[in-house]
Amino acid sequence: MSGNLWMFSDMLDDEDAKMMQHEFVTYYEGADYYGLGLKVFTRLAHEAGAVYKIGKRVLIRRDIFEEYLRILRRKEDTSEMDENMKSEDNDMRQGALTLDAQTGRMDIRFDLENYYGGLQCGERLDILINGEWVPTRIEMGDGWYLSGIKTDNLEGLIVRI
């Protein structure tokens, strides 16, 4: 950890305090402290560019290694978010907005015979604008409109729900 150590003092133990005093660690110390196997720690240290040979000893610079771990963690988090977004995209159905003349409600036509069944005020959906999906919700005032999106005619707009 870097920065204000006192802010996290309730989370630190003696081993953390001891480790913070060292700028460099050996392979064995690092593998033990970070809870990684020796081979995994060695590989990550080399990938991070944190390996230094000082005399006959090979040492790992902690700050470089920890920054590399943070970068890896961010990549994992964003890839998980991307996977979640993809699964959400797969769950959503895409169609065109249309006005149901009998009920006066907006509906989504998925294909020739499949309809959503009538949209309610405040229902959330995504609309395709310039190749990008924009989240919005459908509302009714003097007529049907999409919140935050200016358009004169809703019929035929590509949406997903």
TrEMBL record:
It comes from the Bacteria. Residues 95-161 form the DUF5348 domain. InterPro entries: DUF5348, DUF6462, Tn1545/Tn916_Xis. Transmembrane segments: none annotated. This is DUF5348 domain-containing protein.
